[in-house]
Amino acid sequence: MLDTRLGQVEHACQPPEEEPTARFQGHGTQRAARAQRGAPVAGSGADEWSCIDMMDEADPAVLLGVCGLYCGACYHYRASFPEGKHLIEEVRHRGRDVEGFTCGGCRSGMVYVHPGCSQCQIRACAERRRIIHCGECAEFPCDRIAGFQADGRVHHREVLSNLEDLRICGVATWLAAQDQRWRCACGTQFSWYEGSCRRCGASLTSYGRVARSW
User: Fold this and answer.
1) pLDDT in tens, the chain (214 residues)
2) What whole-number distance in Å separates Cα of residue 31 and Cα of residue 82?
């Protein structure tokens, strides 16, 4: 487990203050904005899910990466919202191509075009094994997921501990805890490497405090 689990809730399996479905139903503004432009929507859903197939995009589990990443904090996902426009502008400022940059989550119908996401071998493996996430696999932790954690990208460093947490507390509770972890005290959601809140200016406990690797 990464020693510096920046800004994590006291325990990833700590029960949320409200039911997980109620928490996700509170995202009406974002859901309406995404629906208006035909983008994937994160909304309410069942507490547990039975397979890895492409999910209803109104299901909060669409934000669960099989590898243990929380797609809700990914800059590609956050950039797909109107309030994430600054992320696209930053990428464009760096001279990178923004075509296909946005994403609706690993299980959605709109996945980031980079082969590491669109042709993800970890997701393909989970699909073959009919499991929700790697923590359910009899071979966990395998060399592939261990290598993914050790590939040098800061936001990959917690995937094994995230998967262990998922095994203990289940999908719905873990997703609710992640939703809380990736919010500023003012309630604004932020992505992995943002250093300050775009709404209130507060310093954020993001991976940007360790390194910027995207």
Assistant:
1) 333 333 343 445 664 454 433 333 333 333 333 344 344 333 323 333 334 444 555 577 889 999 999 999 998 999 998 888 888 888 888 888 888 888 998 888 888 888 888 899 999 999 999 999 999 999 999 999 999 999 999 999 999 999 999 999 999 999 999 999 999 999 999 999 999 999 999 999 898 765 544 4
2) 11
Residue at token pair 């990736």:
182
Enter the pTM of the model: 0.72
Tokens of 137: 């696999």
Please write down the HEC assignment for all residues of 51-114. Answer: CCCCCCCCCHHHHECCCCCEHHHCHHHHCCCHHHHHHHHHHHHCCCCCCCCCCCCCCCCCCCCC
